[in-house]
Amino acid sequence: MEDKEEFLKEFGDYYGYPNGPKTINEIRATEFKRLKDTVYLDHAGATLYSELQMEAIFKDLTTSVYGNPHSQSDSSSTTSDIVREARQQVLDYCNASPKDYKCIFTSGATAALKLVGENFPWSCKSTFMYTMENHNSVLGIREYALNQGAAAFAVDIKEAVDQDGASRSSVNSVKVSQHPVQRRNEAEVLEGELTGDAYNLFAYPSECNFSGVRFSLDLVNIVKQNAEKILKGSPYSKGRWMVLIDAAKGCATQPPDLSIYPVDFVAISFYKLFGYPTGLGALIIRNDAAKLLKKTYFSGGTVAASIADIDFVRRRDGVEEHFEDGTISFLSIASIRHGFKIFNTLTTSAMCRHIMSLAMFLKKKLLAFRHENGESVCTLYDNTSLKVSSHDSGSIVSLNLKRPDGSWFGYREVEKLASLSGIQLRTGCFCNPGACAKYLGLSHSDLLSNLEAGHVCWDDNDVINGKPTGAVRVSFGYMSTYEDAKKFIDFIRSSFVSIPSEFKKGYLLRAKSNPYPTEGIENRLSSSGCYLKSITIYPIKSCAGFSVQSWPLSSAGLKYDREWLLKSWTGEILTQKKVPEMSLISTFIDLNQQILSVESPCCEGKLQIKVDSDSYLCGKEEFYLHSQRLQHNGYFSIIRYEVRCYENEIDQWFSNAVGQPCSLVRCCHSQYCSTLSNNGSMGMCRDVDSRVNFANEAPFLLISEESVSDLNNRLCSNTQKHSVGAPAYVNPMRFRPNLVISGGEPYAEDGWRNLKIGNTYFTGKILFGILLRYDPGNRAGLDTNSWLTVGEEVHSNSE
């Protein structure tokens, strides 16, 4: 309680809606009861809908009749009235007069941005200028510009700030740094021929979704009126400048005031405002800008008349009707008024102050963390003041964490541990490659090297060549609480901060393993004090496994382990994450009878498949999967699998078990294929010394019972501190390990470079537990006549 009192002493005037109709505690208790055991910190990705909001929507939809607005019936007129009111609500939210602006509904903010890029009057004399901090959905506009012969370039914008941290964005206080000009079809126009009759577009976000930095709306008038001055007389500054703001993120707390700033285009996403509906956005467009857009396609709802067999069409005059192709999502549009009702009740200014107080509090606490040796724990990615009155800071705290020796924790490690602690956040680059590269200090060569090393969006390659490839992002919403922020702070402290009492014991001291050990390992192995406690085989990827006392090894790992998988009819690999029913499918292999037995509560009877017979097989297929494994040359690889398919009777059994059509396939051959080119094209395929089954990264996953026990103690301690429900318990089998060891100290395995169990040698990669593969430096490690047996001693090398 003392911590909260200290927080309220500094932020009490801003936190919790002190002058609102409900306090934050009342809001959480009545409208977000489902968050009882969850800390949700990804509001920049998607904020949460209120339960009362959804009740109101459900009541509305179940008591009203809404017809297609393109009809003339009473129900259609009702819909048209609702849509008209919704358009006005959107305009009112941005203080936009209907005399100057129109609201075009789209399928999302991305569709709104695409509409601008697709219909903008580009020419070979045009320029597309955009800030480095832009979402990919904005960068995609570049394709339209370049294909029409226009020039495009990124800029860095530095705005002077006053003592309170607020921007002072006059022409003289804004510094613009231009990146290289991109151009296609250069022969069409020379720089000296650029004239002032071209239309140019400047795009920037109201709030960067990577760092949370807000850009001043004064940039609108500065660019429109003084482009030549801020671009220092560049020939690309000539012409009429129009401004596009991506407000998908920033609009939730600070919508642009269009009565003051004459923005031409504003893109909005409603699920980022109030959680629901998804799949609906809007483009707020100035009337004079709408007249300049050149739309080609027409559809139902956009024409006054057309003739089918001759080239004749007369389009509707209204801006909204002109650009809204087909029937709009009118039921979703009818729902947004219930979201705006929340915003009007709490007010955006109060929500902004509430959210900023949490973000500032979190930043201060994270920056104060120090390891035992005095080194800082956290690196934040923003350039804003730590004063709550700062107008340049949004709801986002973007960061990475360092070990005491200065090396980086991988952001995926942080995300996975946070999930175990009931904390939901986001990691990566958040579809903002420019901001990611800028804040992480990644050069073009770094980015291309990372791509060649296999790094793509949403993978686990979080640190390459000693540099992070992305970040951890925490983002708050209007319903976030002090307790949410505090739990994240406590999670960072307990999991990643080195303190004297836990030095050399905690998770944070994970060693960086050498994947290719030198010779003579057996001479350096010593008893670890651990023994092999359990062995688990998972014949079918993502289905339940079975435990054994001993089991034979094959060139692919444990014999038959993850040798089968389920594939949807569209080719998608099924996993528990997407198909939780797979966890209910139990498996067992009888080595003597050579039979795989499978059972499911959704199916009658046990399915038995002979593993040494081809009688069930009905053909071969091949497909490719990305591997998380790097080859010896440092390049990324994908694996080409040749698989055998089964007859319809077996496929139907599994389709019934998981509740969707699928097929069972068995791996019979695999090859690594190098990806060497910058565009990710496939290179040479090669056979591997051992067959690779369907394991994610390595043939074995080893977990320490003591490490999991220590994790549970930390989770229990955090729960008791905050008195929030029963402590979470993590079973070692949650990680789906093949091998569980017992004995020794918690996390001792993190320092092991190599180990020997029985007569088999392994080398590993650390995440949580160890991903093991056979040690290529020891021929004994490839003895496929070996067995692993429960109780065998574990010998390790920590050099």
UniProtKB/TrEMBL annotation:
Keyword DNA-binding in annotation: no
The organism's place on the tree of life at top rank: Eukaryota
Cofactor requirements of the protein: pyridoxal 5'-phosphate
Domain MOSC: 665-799
Record InterPro entries: Aminotrans_V_dom, MoCF_Sase_C, MoCo_sulfurase, MOCOS_middle, PyrdxlP-dep_Trfase, PyrdxlP-dep_Trfase_major
Keywords, in A-Z order: Molybdenum cofactor biosynthesis, Pyridoxal phosphate, Transferase
Organism the protein comes from: Durio zibethinus
Modified residues (N6-(pyridoxal phosphate)lysine): K272
Cross-referenced HAMAP family: MOCOS (MF_03050)
E.C. number: 2.8.1.9
Family matches, as Pfam families: Aminotran_5, MOSC, MOSC_N
Protein's name in the database: Molybdenum cofactor sulfurase
Substrates-to-products reaction catalysed: Mo-molybdopterin + L-cysteine + AH2 = thio-Mo-molybdopterin + L-alanine + A + H2O
MF annotations from Gene Ontology: lyase activity; molybdenum cofactor sulfurtransferase activity; molybdenum ion binding; pyridoxal phosphate binding
Summary of the function given for this chain in its UniProt record: Sulfurates the molybdenum cofactor. Sulfation of molybdenum is essential for xanthine dehydrogenase (XDH) and aldehyde oxidase (ADO) enzymes in which molybdenum cofactor is liganded by 1 oxygen and 1 sulfur atom in active form.
Lineage: Eukaryota, Viridiplantae, Streptophyta, Embryophyta, Tracheophyta
SUPFAM superfamilies named among the record's database cross-references: MOSC N-terminal domain-like, PLP-dependent transferases
Any one GO BP annotation for this protein: Mo-molybdopterin cofactor biosynthetic process
PANTHER family per UniProt: MOLYBDENUM COFACTOR SULFURASE, MOLYBDOPTERIN COFACTOR SULFURASE MOSC
Enzyme type, top EC level: transferase
Residues annotated as the enzyme's active site: C431
Family: Belongs to the class-V pyridoxal-phosphate-dependent aminotransferase family. MOCOS subfamily.
Manganese recorded as keyword: no
